[in-house]
Structure formats: structure tokens, C-alpha cells
Amino acid sequence: MMRKDSNMRNNINEIPSRGIGIKLINKIADELSYARTSERRNCLLIVKNFHPVTIPPQQTNQAGYLKRAVNFFSSFNFGFKQGQNRHFYRSYNQPTKIICLQLNTDLNSVKKVLWWVEQLEDLPIPEAVLQQCKLATIEGFTNAVRHAHKNLPFQTPIDLEITVFNERLEVKIWDRGEPFDIQAKLLEELPVIWSELGCMLD
Questions:
Q1: CA separation for the pair 103, 99 (Å, rounded)
Q2: 202, 194 Cβ separation under 8 angstroms
Q3: Which tens digits make up the pLDDT trace of 2-43?
Q4: Best label site of 20, 40, 127, 202, fewest CB within 10 Å?
Q5: What is the C-alpha to C-alpha distance for residues 3 and 144, in angstroms, rounded to an integer?
Q6: How confident is the model over 40-99, as pLDDT tens digits?
Q7: How far apart are CA 133 and CA 125, in angstroms?
């Protein structure tokens, strides 16, 4: 693992930069933003929606009976049904898992990022979505190292957080570099490599 800032910068500069990272993230994400926070950091937000993996029928029989009973009684009580709907919206926006990680500005930490995301493998997330989440998170981290922190010390931290909800996951990556307009960057470079990204994700 490299410890000297000058070696870190040289290593980063040796990697060809075509802007493909942010384009790849944009193709994966259902929502994408990059904003300055009140702590003078930048937050890359990647949102990916999904349909949860179905639990095997033998594990859902009891839940199915309960759901049918609730639906039956709610047909006689509108007030109860309203309460049920409020509970549904609360549970939809209630995280099922939150994982956090802080790393130095070091491309050699990519393996740590990958192992960290693998904590989500036991959750009912479709395999394809999980793989896209891994790819987007790694691309977001390496972009922070190569671009946002290019001239910053090795010890400058990069913070990562993944929040999983019932039907979506949110990846947040905070850097301490200079902010930039992500939408302008996408519009500037998108036509050049759009077809390549399509091939990579098909």
C-alpha cells in the first residue's frame, strides 16, 4: 500500500481518464446527483430501484394468512385502512440496512470497497442489482480518488454509505475536493462513449 502523496498522484495520473466512470454510474442509476454539503464536502448520490427477491412460498404462508385477514377486516373499517396505508408508507421509507465505510485516498482500497458491499448479499436484492451496486460504488470511489482528491494528501478520507430500503438502495460517497457540475459533465461526454457503456451492461 502506498503511503507517499507523490507516489499516489503518479499512480493516479498513469490511469487513462476518459470520463467513463461517471457515465457508467449514470447508466446504472435511476437517480444521480452530486451536491455540495454544509460540511464543505461533496456528496455523490446513486439511487437504484428494484423489486425484492421473492421469499420461497413455505416461508410466506403464515404472512399470507395474516395479510388476507387484515385485508378482510380493513374492508369494514376505513379508518383502520387509512392507518394501514400510513404504516405501509412508513415501512417503505424505513431502511432495512445501513452500512458505512471510511477509506483513505488510495486506489488500492478498491478491494476493501468490494468486500464491504458484499455485506448486502444476504438481503433480498436481485443479483443483477447487487452487481450493478458494486460496480457503481467502485466507480464512485475511484472517481473520488482520481479526480476530486487528485491533489489532496493520501490521508484525506472518503466516506461511503449504502442504505437499503424495501425497493431501492441509495449509495452515498462523500469527497473533500472541489465541486463540479455533474450534469454538464454528462452532457459534454455522453455521446462519445454511450454505445460502449451499452455493450458493457448488456
A1: 14
A2: no
A3: 333 444 333 434 434 445 688 889 999 999 999 999 999 999
A4: 202
A5: 18
A6: 999 999 999 999 987 565 555 555 565 665 555 555 555 555 555 565 555 568 999 999
A7: 10
